Automatic annotation (TrEMBL):
Claim: Cell inner membrane is one of the keywords in the record: no
PANTHER family per record: GAMMA-BUTYROBETAINE HYDROXYLASE-RELATED, TAUD_TFDA-LIKE DOMAIN-CONTAINING PROTEIN
Protein name, UniProt field: TauD/TfdA-like domain-containing protein
Alphabetical keyword list: Oxidoreductase
Pfam families, per database record: TauD (PF02668)
The keyword Nucleotide-binding belongs to this UniProt entry's keyword annotation: no
Entry-linked InterPro entries: AlphaKG_dependent_hydroxylases, TauD-like_sf, TauD/TfdA-like
Gene3D superfamilies (UniProt xref): Clavaminate synthase-like
A GO MF label: oxidoreductase activity
Domain (TauD/TfdA-like) ranges: 49-326
Length: 331
């Protein structure tokens, strides 16, 4: 289905990669006609509503879409309107690790961990069974320096890892992964996985927290000053049914190289599903492959990035403040 030329122009950036003729990510900017309508606060919202089937097909082909140059999107509320225009159902952030704050409507801050910390590649909430299918990010305040959100196609990583480490991938197929995280009672903003148990389960009631953990098939053990969660065994590799390919759907490298704070040892945060430790050399080589295949487009104020969470892993580079990236998760 062709795009309506009234709204969107497909543009190219030097950062994009070409996979089988499809640029990653797709980049859409306003047409000349839309440029003349910059006063309309809802121009991107209207364009999304008009072109929703085409945008869905574009996302399916490319895995991610960057909307750039739509000046009508400048606030968290504007961003919330764009998210609503897509019509995807909201996903409550239950079981996730990142410290976040609700801003307005369906909009939250992205991971609030300190700016000097890198957040490694992961599929959003891949460590729990109820994960989002779509992610939105919005640049409200452009970073002073750094702070990109690199993205990478998951099936490319699966193919490269299978080619280089077939025995390791076989073990992942056979055993899956176990994720272990130690949580405090309250959020710890100094940690990239600092979400406390109250925020993780959206309750102050321990009994209700236990019920919500059980709904996720997650073991919850109370400690003196918090809780320990044990998730798994859970698959590390999934089939992307709509695209007929296997995907590297996990938070393995993120946990192994980044789940570190005063409570957590990253080497113990993730293991094979049979409890055996993961090979250190393969973990760091996988990280290198992820970085080599990734695309990191510097943020500009007003950017909206839509990611298919079944196709794409994402991360965050360290940055010099100010920087404010907002997010929204969809079923």
């Amino acid at each position: 289905m062709p795009a309506n030329p009234i709204f969107f122009a497909e543009t190219k950036l030097p950062h994009q990669k070409n996979y089988g003729g499809a640029l990653f990510p797709a980049v859409l900017s306003p047409t000349a006609a839309v440029e003349h309508s910059r006063n309309r606060p809802s121009v991107l919202t209207a364009a999304v509503k008009d072109q929703k089937p085409w945008l869905d097909s574009l996302l399916h082909r490319h895995g991610a879409i960057l909307f750039r140059g739509f000046d009508s999107v400048s606030t968290a509320s504007d961003f919330n309107d764009v998210v609503e225009a897509f019509g995807y159902e909201e996903l409550p952030y239950v079981g996730g690790a990142a410290p976040r704050t609700n801003v307005v409507g369906r909009v939250f801050t992205a991971n609030e961990s300190p700016p000097d910390q890198k957040i490694p590649f992961h599929h959003e909430m891949a460590q729990v069974p109820n994960y989002p299918s779509k992610l939105f990010f919005f640049c409200e305040v452009e970073p002073a320096n750094g702070g990109e959100t690199p993205i990478v196609l998951s099936h490319i990583i699966y193919d490269k890892m299978t080619e280089k480490y077939p025995d390791f991938v076989d073990k992942l197929h056979k055993h899956g992964l176990i994720y272990t995280r130690v949580l405090g009672e309250e959020d710890d903003p100094s940690s990239p996985i600092g979400r406390g148990w109250k925020s993780t389960f959206l309750t102050k009631d321990k009994t209700l927290a236990e019920e919500r953990a059980a709904e996720l098939n997650m073991k919850l053990e109370w400690t003196e000053d918090g809780a320990k969660t044990i998730m798994g065994p859970i698959p590390a590799i999934k089939n992307d049914e709509t695209r007929k390919r296997k995907i590297w759907f996990n938070s393995m490298v993120a946990a192994y190289t980044g789940w570190e704070d005063k409570r957590n040892d990253p080497k113990k945060a993730v293991t094979f599903g049979d409890g055996n430790v993961l090979p250190d050399n393969i973990m760091y080589d996988c990280l290198k492959i992820l970085e080599d295949e990734s695309v990191a487009i510097p943020w500009r104020k007003g950017d909206v990035l839509l990611i298919d969470n079944l196709a794409v892993l994402h991360s965050r580079k360290p940055f010099t403040p100010p920087r404010r990236i907002l997010a929204s998760l969809c079923k």
